[in-house]
Amino acid sequence: TLKTHPEEGTYDFGFIDEKKYTGKITYVPVNTSPGYWTFTSSGYAVGSGNFSATSIVGIADTGTSLVYLPPSILTAYYRQVEGATSSRTYGGYVFPCNSKLPSFTFGIGEARITIPSSYISYAPVTAGSSTCFGGLQSSSSLGINIWGDVALKAAFVVFHGGNPPTIGWAKKPLES
Fold it and tell me: What is the Cα Rg of the chain in Å?
């Protein structure tokens, strides 16, 4: 279970600790042939807006800090953030640190996982800056969508290496 702030998270191997999540785990198939855990999200919603049912093929990657998504999804998200701009200087979306951010919800089959706004305000662009770098960024230059730590720490995630392999997502208690 990845955590926010400087708290230590945990990885459990070979078992699922039912105390770490709520509800049920929703599993979806993965393709591991390219060397990644590639799966398809069933869509997204910005804040309390309507869920947009659209396939988003991407990878779950514990080695990537941010979430990288298609530009159209980022436009839908950041147009809800006052003062947000795509910055060449900082290489992605930035906004005033005191901006009110909406949450971001993504679908895993019929299940919905919500990334709280506090996770999306990733960090000040430099120490002490009043400009923050967003936890959601564009995948257009990467050629792949990535569900990194910003998404992974918002859920209980199971990488099931069975035959066939699957990835499971469930809600969990979140830190603020």
Answer: 16
